[in-house]
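Quick illustration, no need to memorize.
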Amino acid sequence: MAQRYTIYNTKALIAAMLLGLILFIPGIGTASQVDKIIAAPEPPEGIVFEVVSGDDDALDRLLPQIQKDIQRLRNRFPNLEIALVSHGIEQFALLSDETDEFKEVHELVQNLGESDVPVHVCGTHASWQGKTDRDFPAYVDVAPSGPAQINQYIELGYVLILVD
């Protein structure tokens, strides 16, 4: 009987791990995660959207959907705290000297800031390219480390949504 119990627990553990993996694989679980949060009776402490990509146009493609997801979340939970952290190549679209080339991205990020959604980029990654916080506009927060910023939100009880 002890063997059956162990097998049952192992199968349950594997199933839970696979479900967790599906929810956090980039591009697979995002809509599902937002839907599950909206369906919940109570909101989480907050949401942190993570964007990390090797595509410099990723924010151009992803921000409109993130903005829609934020609107859906706020329609359900008006006081929900939400943040966005970008720490891949895409963060460089937010440089001040990229405002003309990525005009829509900059406008969307400004709108997020006005909606009380802070947008953070990774200062460490920026420094590897010779960039500092002075190279980004005031509506973009340059965190010392993107992953550390995400971990701070998670420690506060925020739910992480990886977007790619």
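The chain has six helices and five strands.
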